Amino acid sequence: MNHIIQTSDLTMSFRGCDALRGVTLNVDEGTVFALLGENGAGKTTLIRILTGFQLPTSGTCRIMDLNPAKDALEIRRRTGYVSDAPALYDWMGVGEIGWFAATLYDNQFLPRYKESIRRYEIPEDRKIRHLSKGQRAKVALSLALAHDPDLLILDEPTSGLDPMVRRDFLESMIDRAASGRTVFLSSHQISEVERVADVIAILHDGKVRVCEPLDKLKDSVTEVAISLEDPLVALPTLPKPAEVLDEQSYGRQRSMVVRHYDSEMHDLLASRVGVTGVSERALSLEEIFIAFTGRSQSPKPVENAEIPMAIEGGLA
């Protein structure tokens, strides 16, 4: 499978801030690729580099086998982009802005745009300024898709939208990928992304913590709950390739989030003197995200308490 996006050791430094610190990613054609991260993690900076609006401090980047530093216009011609706050001309009507954008593309742009607007039930004579945020997002998506781009980039596109609009918006991305196109989705709305993404990358503090297919990522991370005779019982170090992402204590209960956990590690913990029980639980993507970004909140220890099971998510 061909890579439609390739980055190698990208860095971006601003005065007093390293927005990206060695980002390496490969995005395959025909996938929904989700880049997850908190606000300020570097997601928008990376998108600006991908689209040629920002030159990186160091590293390399190729989009559709083009160099954003030299081929930015061609990349934008073949890319659709929707942000959380699409820049649309408020004084134009819905039909007018489609006609205006159509002058930049081939003669199939306007029919595709009008069909999309009809599907979303947005009147062509309605002024952009009179649209709701959800309707504006649908107009922006229609504009971004009307030239049938090879790559669609979405930067927090569902921020502030109602649940029904968000669901329809994201599920349309699955259809997009099924047609062989690629969707690059940047978001911190993790529960929504979990329903549509093929591949997940977690960006934290300017670094990619993990990049794997969603099913593989979820299979590789486990919460391990350990019951102890005494809170001071020392547990053995788990052998490689295990990686403890998070560890919390609640009286005589110990909770660990472990990557690459297996049955031999279960036996190692269960056989430890002072351990009275070991159980495992699969995690949601949101819980995995919290573990990788180190933002979990430890509750006050309560003797014999049960371990909590839910942790707190344009115009081309």
Automatic annotation (TrEMBL):
InterPro entries per the UniProt record, alphabetical: AAA+_ATPase (IPR003593), ABC_transporter-like_ATP-bd (IPR003439), ABC_transporter-like_CS (IPR017871), P-loop_NTPase (IPR027417)
Signal peptide (from-to): none
Domain ABC transporter: 5-230
Gene Ontology molecular function: ATP binding; ATP hydrolysis activity
Source species, domain of life: Bacteria
SMART domains: AAA (SM00382)
Pfam family membership, one: ABC_tran
Sorted UniProt keywords: ATP-binding, Nucleotide-binding
Protein name, UniProt field: ABC transporter ATP-binding protein YtrB
Naturally occurring in which organism (per UniProt): Stieleria neptunia
Gene: ytrB_1
